[in-house]
Description:
The protein is α/β, with parallel strands linked by helices. The protein has a domain at 56-191 and 235-252: 3-Layer(aba) Sandwich (Rossmann fold). 42% of the residues lie in helices and 19% in strands.
Amino acid sequence: MNKKELLFYDAYEAFYAMAGQSKAFGDFCRDAFGADFSQDGFSDIRQIEMILPYIPRTGDVHILDIGCGNGKMLGYLQAKTAACIHGFDYSEEAIRTAQALFPENADFREGVIGGVDYPDESFDVITSMDTLYFAEDMAAFVAQIKRWLKPGGVFFVGYQEGDVLPKTENADTTRLARALAENNLAYEAKDITAESYALLKAKRCAALAHQQAFEAEGRRDWFDMLLGQTDYANEPYEQFRTRMARYIYVIRK
């Protein structure tokens, strides 16, 4: 498989190279999201901390993050729980950084959805924050995730519609909901579209606050990208929610 043909591959290689070097971007993330996990999306610290109650505090605990990027979110979860962390991502740059940042009780692999496998019943918690749309066959991938989870394990998903995937009516009509139904997996879903709209505004304010820092680093192009990503913040929420939706899914095996 030629990875350069995969969705956003070259863009993410450049993104993680920038994120590893730019103080301006780290400061932007802390202001916009409440923590610097090198986010490219809508996963702020409040969403990440929603994962913590599902992580066991005793025993041999293992967490897998699908599309783990440079591992900073997993590193945060490990610091809070002492769990062993695992992640895979198609970005060579991201995985190289993750392996350097988090060498203890960690396994980071370069790979794509459908091209990576783990033994059955390996993980207490599996997370996916804005990554499932990379799956060509979501139902087949959900079946694989179900197999990887320990009995009683939790699959925690941040899922957005309206950009890569078309918006459907509600959390029960998404492509993910259909894939879960095909695999006989029950779920709870929380609509966080309003919170995402507020975060969009916070991202725009943070980008503008750090414009000069990006320019001083010679990274005006990244500032322009961040500003472009937040154009929706200029429209009323009632209009925004007709275009976009965001949900947190909690799925138990």
